[in-house]
Fold:
Amino acid sequence: MKTAELRELPSEELQTRLDEVKEELFNLRFQHATGQLENYSRLGQLRKDVARLRSIQRERDLGIGHEPEPEEVERGRRRREREKEEAGAEPRRRRGLRRGRGEEEEAAADEATEATGSSEEAAEEAEAEESE
Structure:
């Protein structure tokens, strides 16, 4: 969950999310205790989510943060739906498989590797023929 998205939620929904996250955390702790937990990193993620939710609630209690107006909530919901549709429409690009290189650099590096690989293979074949 992103903090910016959480700040757009009304207090009632924040409390609902907090309850859901706490329940999931409880269930994962049980799985951990019985040795059935497969994804241990999820425990840390949920703890951080609980902290985020509580922080936003506390900000609102202290008057630091504000509860969004119903129009803001609706606008944010529509924006998130539109972003999901756009993300689903275009295929996801593979990102930096090789230390942040772009696709063009990656293709050039692949070609260079293939070129050097074939010359190394030719040298190995020549050595094998000479030794025979």
Remarks:
- The mean pLDDT is 80.
- Residues 97-132 form one domain.
- The longest helix spans residues 103-131.
